[in-house]
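Progress report, Aim 2. The chain analyzed during this reporting quarter is listed below.
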Amino acid sequence: MPHDHSYRSERCMTQFTGVKVLLVEDEGVVAMMIEDMLEALGCEVVSSIARVTPALEIAAKADIDLAVLDVNVAGEQVFPVAEVLRDRSIPFLFSTGYGASGLPSHFSDRQVLSKPFSDSELQEKIAATLQGRELMMPADDRPC
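Predicted structure tokens for the chain:
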């Protein structure tokens, strides 16, 4: 069933309006679903990548505020991308169907979205990931 995207032009600004996101997800339908969720939250998906090698290049150079990383990307683990982001002090969270137990200990403090997840779960994890950063718009500054 096609999605009706007409609401996007009339949506209110959210606390995540303008947050630039890198998405690393190898399943096309899942990537589109997450992109839709992010855009509905006001985020700008700067790049959606389905392989680790190009994701490494984007993570090293792109102007992004946040990344959502699938742990297993086309049979490769995404942790080298996470390391690049960590070195650049760019916040990120993991999405996985396997739970937090599959993360290396040095990433055990990161937020994890367990697939499948809802819009509200994504919103909660993004808020927790960005907590304390000046990227989120205060509620009283939102126009709606």
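The CA atoms of residues 29 and 108 lie 28 Å apart. The helical segments are 28-40, 52-61, 79-87, 119-130. These observations will guide the mutagenesis work planned for the next reporting period.
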